[in-house]
Amino acid sequence: MTIQSSVERKYRKSPRAPLLPQAQSQNHDNLEAHEAGIDGASFSGAVFNLSTTIVGAGIMALPATVKELGLIPGLIMIVLVGWLTESSIDMIMRFSRASKSATYSGVVADAFGGAGRALLQVCIVVNNLGMLVVYMIIIGDVLSGAWLNGVHHSGVTEEWFGQHWWTTRFTLLLLTTLFVFLPLISFRRVDSLRYTSALSVGLAIVFVVITAGVAIVKTIDGSISMPCLLPEISKQASFWKLFTTFPVLVTAYICHHNIHPIENELKDPTQIKSIVRTSITLCSTVYITTSFFGLLLFGDRTLDDVLANFDGDLGIPYSSLLDDV
Protein backbone atom coordinates (compact mmCIF):
# COMPACT_ATOMS: atom_id res chain seq x y z
CA MET A 1 0.00 0.00 0.00
CA THR A 2 2.83 2.31 0.85
CA ILE A 3 4.72 1.36 -2.30
CA GLN A 4 1.64 1.90 -4.45
CA SER A 5 1.00 5.30 -2.92
CA SER A 6 4.57 6.41 -3.49
CA VAL A 7 4.46 5.24 -7.11
CA GLU A 8 1.20 7.05 -7.66
CA ARG A 9 2.64 10.20 -6.15
CA LYS A 10 5.71 9.88 -8.36
CA TYR A 11 3.73 9.88 -11.60
CA ARG A 12 0.86 12.06 -10.45
CA LYS A 13 0.80 15.45 -12.20
CA SER A 14 0.71 18.63 -10.24
CA PRO A 15 -2.63 20.46 -10.52
CA ARG A 16 -0.64 23.41 -11.90
CA ALA A 17 1.02 21.33 -14.65
CA PRO A 18 0.07 22.23 -18.25
CA LEU A 19 -2.13 19.78 -20.15
CA LEU A 20 0.32 19.72 -23.06
CA PRO A 21 4.08 19.25 -22.81
CA GLN A 22 6.00 22.51 -22.70
CA ALA A 23 7.62 22.11 -26.12
CA GLN A 24 4.35 21.05 -27.76
CA SER A 25 2.48 23.94 -26.13
CA GLN A 26 5.11 26.44 -27.31
CA ASN A 27 5.02 25.03 -30.84
CA HIS A 28 1.24 25.27 -30.83
CA ASP A 29 1.38 28.91 -29.68
CA ASN A 30 3.98 29.74 -32.30
CA LEU A 31 1.87 28.05 -34.99
CA GLU A 32 -1.21 30.03 -33.95
CA ALA A 33 0.77 33.27 -33.98
CA HIS A 34 2.21 32.45 -37.39
CA GLU A 35 -1.21 31.58 -38.80
CA ALA A 36 -2.64 34.83 -37.46
CA GLY A 37 0.22 36.80 -39.01
CA ILE A 38 1.38 38.11 -35.65
CA ASP A 39 5.02 39.10 -35.28
CA GLY A 40 6.76 40.41 -32.20
CA ALA A 41 6.52 44.10 -31.43
CA SER A 42 9.30 46.35 -32.69
CA PHE A 43 11.48 48.68 -30.65
CA SER A 44 9.87 51.83 -32.09
CA GLY A 45 6.33 50.51 -31.63
CA ALA A 46 7.04 49.66 -27.99
CA VAL A 47 8.56 53.11 -27.40
CA PHE A 48 5.49 54.83 -28.86
CA ASN A 49 3.07 52.67 -26.85
CA LEU A 50 4.94 53.22 -23.59
CA SER A 51 5.35 56.95 -24.29
CA THR A 52 1.61 57.27 -24.91
CA THR A 53 0.96 55.54 -21.59
CA ILE A 54 3.22 58.09 -19.87
CA VAL A 55 2.25 61.29 -21.69
CA GLY A 56 -1.34 61.65 -20.63
CA ALA A 57 -3.69 64.37 -19.56
CA GLY A 58 -1.22 65.55 -16.92
CA ILE A 59 0.90 67.30 -19.54
CA MET A 60 -1.68 70.11 -19.74
CA ALA A 61 -1.46 70.71 -15.97
CA LEU A 62 2.34 70.80 -15.78
CA PRO A 63 2.77 74.52 -16.66
CA ALA A 64 0.43 75.45 -13.79
CA THR A 65 2.29 73.02 -11.52
CA VAL A 66 5.62 74.63 -12.35
CA LYS A 67 4.04 78.05 -11.78
CA GLU A 68 3.20 77.05 -8.20
CA LEU A 69 6.60 75.48 -7.49
CA GLY A 70 8.70 78.05 -9.32
CA LEU A 71 10.57 77.41 -12.56
CA ILE A 72 13.75 75.88 -11.10
CA PRO A 73 12.18 73.60 -8.43
CA GLY A 74 9.41 72.62 -10.85
CA LEU A 75 11.77 71.46 -13.60
CA ILE A 76 13.96 69.67 -11.05
CA MET A 77 10.91 67.80 -9.75
CA ILE A 78 9.97 66.68 -13.28
CA VAL A 79 13.47 65.26 -13.83
CA LEU A 80 13.50 63.66 -10.36
CA VAL A 81 10.15 61.92 -10.82
CA GLY A 82 11.30 60.66 -14.23
CA TRP A 83 14.42 59.15 -12.66
CA LEU A 84 12.39 57.56 -9.86
CA THR A 85 10.03 56.08 -12.44
CA GLU A 86 12.87 54.49 -14.40
CA SER A 87 14.39 53.10 -11.18
CA SER A 88 11.08 51.66 -10.00
CA ILE A 89 10.42 50.01 -13.37
CA ASP A 90 13.90 48.47 -13.32
CA MET A 91 13.17 47.12 -9.84
CA ILE A 92 9.84 45.65 -11.00
CA MET A 93 11.46 43.91 -13.97
CA ARG A 94 14.23 42.42 -11.83
CA PHE A 95 11.72 41.01 -9.36
CA SER A 96 9.59 39.76 -12.27
CA ARG A 97 12.47 37.59 -13.44
CA ALA A 98 13.22 36.42 -9.91
CA SER A 99 9.60 35.40 -9.29
CA LYS A 100 9.07 34.22 -12.90
CA SER A 101 6.03 36.48 -13.19
CA ALA A 102 4.78 37.67 -16.57
CA THR A 103 2.37 40.30 -15.22
CA TYR A 104 2.45 43.22 -12.83
CA SER A 105 -0.22 41.62 -10.65
CA GLY A 106 1.86 38.43 -10.58
CA VAL A 107 4.81 40.29 -9.10
CA VAL A 108 2.57 41.88 -6.47
CA ALA A 109 0.95 38.52 -5.68
CA ASP A 110 4.39 36.95 -5.19
CA ALA A 111 5.31 39.68 -2.69
CA PHE A 112 1.99 40.39 -0.94
CA GLY A 113 -0.26 37.45 -1.74
CA GLY A 114 -3.77 37.40 -3.15
CA ALA A 115 -4.90 40.39 -1.09
CA GLY A 116 -2.10 42.50 -2.55
CA ARG A 117 -3.02 41.42 -6.06
CA ALA A 118 -6.69 42.32 -5.52
CA LEU A 119 -5.78 45.72 -4.06
CA LEU A 120 -3.48 46.43 -7.01
CA GLN A 121 -6.17 45.57 -9.53
CA VAL A 122 -8.66 47.83 -7.77
CA CYS A 123 -6.12 50.68 -7.79
CA ILE A 124 -5.44 50.19 -11.52
CA VAL A 125 -9.17 50.27 -12.30
CA VAL A 126 -9.66 53.43 -10.20
CA ASN A 127 -6.62 55.08 -11.81
CA ASN A 128 -7.77 54.23 -15.34
CA LEU A 129 -11.29 55.48 -14.67
CA GLY A 130 -9.91 58.68 -13.17
CA MET A 131 -7.61 59.27 -16.14
CA LEU A 132 -10.50 58.57 -18.51
CA VAL A 133 -12.59 61.22 -16.75
CA VAL A 134 -9.72 63.70 -17.07
CA TYR A 135 -9.35 62.90 -20.77
CA MET A 136 -13.07 63.41 -21.33
CA ILE A 137 -12.94 66.76 -19.55
CA ILE A 138 -10.03 67.93 -21.71
CA ILE A 139 -11.68 66.68 -24.91
CA GLY A 140 -14.86 68.49 -23.93
CA ASP A 141 -12.95 71.69 -23.16
CA VAL A 142 -11.10 71.59 -26.49
CA LEU A 143 -14.05 70.69 -28.71
CA SER A 144 -16.99 72.33 -26.96
CA GLY A 145 -15.46 74.96 -24.66
CA ALA A 146 -15.59 75.55 -20.92
CA TRP A 147 -16.32 78.12 -18.22
CA LEU A 148 -13.36 79.04 -16.00
CA ASN A 149 -13.60 81.73 -13.30
CA GLY A 150 -16.77 83.09 -14.88
CA VAL A 151 -15.15 83.43 -18.32
CA HIS A 152 -16.31 81.34 -21.27
CA HIS A 153 -13.52 79.75 -23.31
CA SER A 154 -14.81 78.72 -26.73
CA GLY A 155 -14.13 75.27 -28.15
CA VAL A 156 -13.00 74.44 -31.67
CA THR A 157 -16.39 73.31 -32.98
CA GLU A 158 -18.10 76.31 -31.39
CA GLU A 159 -15.68 78.69 -33.09
CA TRP A 160 -16.01 76.99 -36.47
CA PHE A 161 -19.74 76.21 -36.62
CA GLY A 162 -21.37 78.19 -33.82
CA GLN A 163 -23.66 76.82 -31.13
CA HIS A 164 -25.76 73.86 -32.26
CA TRP A 165 -27.08 70.70 -30.60
CA TRP A 166 -24.29 68.66 -32.19
CA THR A 167 -21.58 71.00 -30.83
CA THR A 168 -22.72 70.58 -27.23
CA ARG A 169 -20.41 68.90 -24.75
CA PHE A 170 -22.61 65.82 -24.26
CA THR A 171 -23.00 65.10 -27.97
CA LEU A 172 -19.32 65.49 -28.77
CA LEU A 173 -18.24 63.27 -25.87
CA LEU A 174 -20.80 60.63 -26.86
CA LEU A 175 -19.53 60.59 -30.45
CA THR A 176 -15.92 60.45 -29.25
CA THR A 177 -16.70 57.48 -27.01
CA LEU A 178 -18.56 55.53 -29.71
CA PHE A 179 -16.28 56.19 -32.68
CA VAL A 180 -12.85 56.67 -31.08
CA PHE A 181 -12.59 55.02 -27.67
CA LEU A 182 -14.61 51.86 -28.38
CA PRO A 183 -12.64 50.87 -31.52
CA LEU A 184 -9.32 51.49 -29.76
CA ILE A 185 -10.13 49.35 -26.72
CA SER A 186 -11.29 46.45 -28.92
CA PHE A 187 -7.73 45.37 -29.83
CA ARG A 188 -6.32 42.38 -27.96
CA ARG A 189 -2.64 43.30 -28.35
CA VAL A 190 -0.96 46.48 -27.18
CA ASP A 191 1.21 46.49 -30.31
CA SER A 192 -1.93 46.97 -32.43
CA LEU A 193 -2.06 50.53 -31.06
CA ARG A 194 1.43 51.48 -32.28
CA TYR A 195 0.19 53.73 -35.08
CA THR A 196 -2.31 55.62 -32.94
CA SER A 197 0.36 55.85 -30.24
CA ALA A 198 2.81 57.33 -32.74
CA LEU A 199 0.12 59.83 -33.77
CA SER A 200 -0.50 60.72 -30.13
CA VAL A 201 3.19 61.32 -29.44
CA GLY A 202 3.46 63.32 -32.66
CA LEU A 203 0.56 65.57 -31.65
CA ALA A 204 2.16 66.15 -28.25
CA ILE A 205 5.37 67.20 -30.00
CA VAL A 206 3.39 69.50 -32.33
CA PHE A 207 1.84 71.14 -29.26
CA VAL A 208 5.30 71.61 -27.75
CA VAL A 209 6.67 73.10 -30.98
CA ILE A 210 3.78 75.57 -31.30
CA THR A 211 4.03 76.62 -27.65
CA ALA A 212 7.81 77.02 -27.87
CA GLY A 213 7.61 78.91 -31.17
CA VAL A 214 5.04 81.41 -29.89
CA ALA A 215 6.97 81.90 -26.63
CA ILE A 216 10.26 82.50 -28.48
CA VAL A 217 8.67 85.00 -30.87
CA LYS A 218 7.08 86.94 -28.01
CA THR A 219 10.32 86.83 -26.02
CA ILE A 220 12.23 88.32 -28.94
CA ASP A 221 9.78 91.20 -29.34
CA GLY A 222 9.87 91.78 -25.57
CA SER A 223 6.16 91.28 -24.88
CA ILE A 224 6.65 88.67 -22.14
CA SER A 225 8.92 88.55 -19.12
CA MET A 226 10.80 85.80 -17.30
CA PRO A 227 8.60 83.80 -14.88
CA CYS A 228 9.38 83.40 -11.19
CA LEU A 229 12.33 81.08 -10.62
CA LEU A 230 11.33 80.17 -7.04
CA PRO A 231 7.93 79.75 -5.34
CA GLU A 232 6.36 82.81 -3.75
CA ILE A 233 5.39 81.92 -0.18
CA SER A 234 3.78 84.96 1.40
CA LYS A 235 1.44 83.25 3.85
CA GLN A 236 0.56 79.81 5.19
CA ALA A 237 -2.09 79.18 2.53
CA SER A 238 0.45 79.60 -0.26
CA PHE A 239 2.73 77.09 1.48
CA TRP A 240 0.02 74.42 1.67
CA LYS A 241 -0.87 75.11 -1.95
CA LEU A 242 2.52 73.73 -2.96
CA PHE A 243 1.34 70.25 -1.97
CA THR A 244 -1.46 70.40 -4.55
CA THR A 245 1.22 69.92 -7.21
CA PHE A 246 2.22 66.46 -5.97
CA PRO A 247 -0.70 64.51 -7.54
CA VAL A 248 0.12 65.97 -10.95
CA LEU A 249 3.81 65.10 -10.66
CA VAL A 250 3.15 61.60 -9.29
CA THR A 251 0.67 60.67 -12.02
CA ALA A 252 2.71 62.26 -14.82
CA TYR A 253 4.84 59.14 -15.34
CA ILE A 254 2.40 56.33 -14.50
CA CYS A 255 3.07 53.43 -16.87
CA HIS A 256 4.10 50.53 -14.64
CA HIS A 257 1.00 48.42 -15.32
CA ASN A 258 1.74 48.40 -19.07
CA ILE A 259 5.38 47.33 -18.85
CA HIS A 260 4.70 43.59 -18.80
CA PRO A 261 2.23 43.53 -21.73
CA ILE A 262 4.68 45.53 -23.82
CA GLU A 263 7.62 43.30 -22.87
CA ASN A 264 5.66 40.09 -23.52
CA GLU A 265 4.97 41.18 -27.11
CA LEU A 266 8.54 42.19 -28.00
CA LYS A 267 10.56 40.37 -30.64
CA ASP A 268 13.54 40.74 -28.31
CA PRO A 269 12.44 41.07 -24.65
CA THR A 270 15.98 42.07 -23.64
CA GLN A 271 15.29 45.47 -25.26
CA ILE A 272 12.80 46.46 -22.57
CA LYS A 273 15.37 48.37 -20.52
CA SER A 274 16.42 50.49 -23.51
CA ILE A 275 12.77 51.01 -24.42
CA VAL A 276 11.96 52.28 -20.92
CA ARG A 277 14.95 54.62 -20.91
CA THR A 278 14.14 55.98 -24.38
CA SER A 279 10.47 56.54 -23.53
CA ILE A 280 11.17 58.28 -20.23
CA THR A 281 13.83 60.49 -21.85
CA LEU A 282 11.40 61.43 -24.63
CA CYS A 283 8.55 62.13 -22.22
CA SER A 284 10.76 64.10 -19.82
CA THR A 285 11.89 66.28 -22.72
CA VAL A 286 8.27 66.89 -23.73
CA TYR A 287 7.30 67.66 -20.13
CA ILE A 288 10.19 70.05 -19.53
CA THR A 289 9.71 72.00 -22.76
CA THR A 290 5.94 72.19 -22.30
CA SER A 291 6.28 73.41 -18.72
CA PHE A 292 9.02 75.93 -19.48
CA PHE A 293 7.57 77.50 -22.62
CA GLY A 294 3.96 77.28 -21.38
CA LEU A 295 4.85 79.18 -18.22
CA LEU A 296 7.07 81.58 -20.15
CA LEU A 297 4.25 82.32 -22.60
CA PHE A 298 1.38 82.84 -20.16
CA GLY A 299 3.14 83.65 -16.87
CA ASP A 300 0.77 84.30 -13.98
CA ARG A 301 -2.19 83.85 -16.36
CA THR A 302 -1.38 80.14 -16.78
CA LEU A 303 -4.55 78.13 -16.12
CA ASP A 304 -4.79 74.65 -14.61
CA ASP A 305 -5.50 73.36 -18.13
CA VAL A 306 -3.07 75.28 -20.31
CA LEU A 307 -5.15 74.49 -23.41
CA ALA A 308 -7.74 76.95 -22.12
CA ASN A 309 -5.12 79.71 -22.51
CA PHE A 310 -5.12 79.18 -26.27
CA ASP A 311 -8.63 80.46 -26.93
CA GLY A 312 -7.67 84.14 -27.14
CA ASP A 313 -5.38 86.41 -29.12
CA LEU A 314 -1.75 85.34 -28.69
CA GLY A 315 -0.50 88.66 -30.01
CA ILE A 316 1.25 87.22 -33.07
CA PRO A 317 0.29 86.73 -36.74
CA TYR A 318 -1.99 83.75 -37.48
CA SER A 319 -2.94 83.62 -33.81
CA SER A 320 -6.40 82.20 -34.52
CA LEU A 321 -4.98 79.40 -36.68
CA LEU A 322 -2.43 78.44 -34.02
CA ASP A 323 -5.14 78.43 -31.35
CA ASP A 324 -7.21 75.97 -33.39
CA VAL A 325 -4.20 73.74 -34.06
Description:
It is built from 14 helices and 2 strands; from the N terminus they run ααααααββαααααααα. The chain is mostly helical and 325 residues long. The protein has a two-stranded antiparallel ribbon. The model is unreliable at 1-37 (pLDDT under 50). It has one domain. The protein is 66% helix and 2% strand. The protein is globular and about 60 Å long. α3 packs across α9 (194-220) and α4 (62-69) packs across α13.
Question: In terms of topology, how is this protein built?
Answer:
Elements: H1 2-11, H2 22-35, H3 43-54, H4 62-69, H5 71-99, H6 104-144, E1 145-148, E2 151-154, H7 156-161, H8 169-185, H9 194-220, H10 236-241, H11 246-251, H12 259-264, H13 272-298, H14 319-324
Antiparallel strand pairs: 1-2
Helix pairs in contact: 3-9, 3-13, 4-5, 4-13, 5-6, 5-13, 6-8, 9-13
